[in-house]
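Is flavin mononucleotide placement plausible here? Inputs below.
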Amino acid sequence: MLMKCLVVYYSRGGKTAKVAGAIAGELGCEVCDISKGAPDVSGVDLLVVGSGTYGGNPGPSLSEFLQSIPESVGGKAAVFATSAGPKPKSLPKMSSALEKKGYKVVSSFDCRGQFLVVNRGHPDEKDLENARAFARDLKNK
Ligand SMILES: Cc1cc2nc3c(=O)[nH]c(=O)nc-3n(C[C@H](O)[C@H](O)[C@H](O)COP(=O)(O)O)c2cc1C
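Reply from A.M.:
I modeled the complex. Tokens:
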């Protein structure tokens, strides 16, 4: 059976949007910018959620979205983030919000995103290739 996937992201400065596009392209699914409105997640088998990291948090509208979605029975999810530094705190926050809604978080991905003069040019092509590999691997989860 074909798995229905959906990528939902928040990106204040466009870096996470690039990663979201790479993941959705690999999965062949829709990609939704949460700042343009919350999507309907009913019937989605794999919900992939991502954000930049702002003061250790995902974007506020993404957090609100995760609080607003209905409880899932057996739904799978995956999370991704861009950040200035390694181990972004936004990732476990998105994971735990999804787990509270009954999702099983099967995988996570993060890469650096340019912040002022730090990580200049990131996410770069290698980061996007790693994001596509993360997405390919999701198909087997
Ligand atoms: C207001 C603000 C706060 C940030 N706070 C953090 C942070 O706490 N930790 C971190 O690793 N990066 C932080 N960053 C860097 C961003 O997470 C990083 O540049 C990210 O790639 C931005 O993604 P976007 O272009 O999709 O918004 C911050 C950036 C901004 C603009």
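Short version: Helices lie at 15-27, 60-68, 90-100, 125-138.
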